[in-house]
Amino acid sequence: MTLLDRAPVRRVREALEAAGADAEVLELVATARTAEDAANSLGIALGAIVKSLVFTIANQPVMALVAGDRQCEQKALPAALGLVGKVRRADADLVREVTGFSIGGVAPIGLVQPLPLAIDASLGRFKKVYAAAGHPHCVFGSTLIELARMTGGEIVDGIAAAPR
Hints:
Elements: H1 7-18, E1 25-27, H2 35-42, E2 49-57, E3 60-67, E4 71-72, H3 77-81, E5 87-89, H4 92-99, E6 117-120, E7 129-132, E8 138-142, H5 144-151, E9 154-156, E10 160-161
């Protein structure tokens, strides 16, 4: 059995197929557990890696897709998602519960429950971006527009900034 046969990765592959995406899940030799690892494994710019980050806003789980070379501006998330409340980063147990994925392999598609989702507009700097695909050694490539279509997420400015 390869990593592509594991249930979380299979969920991503099925979501890609259901969305009519041309993307394929790639199994990497080296880890893609962090954005830096993924960029190094693929030989691409750090910013072309999509970080799938889970937070809660007033106890409502949400997801932000942020470029690998940016930090999420948590204070901007409630307005971007039309919510009100304090933003907190979700712990590993909540991430697994609401996405069905473990940290290091959280995909933006194939989630076990729908989440309000904001997408960092700065990902548009790249013709192709890569997101985790359910396992720390699996990713898939897409475009910003296709990612928004597949996730139902809103592309917004201001949810990410260059590290300080």
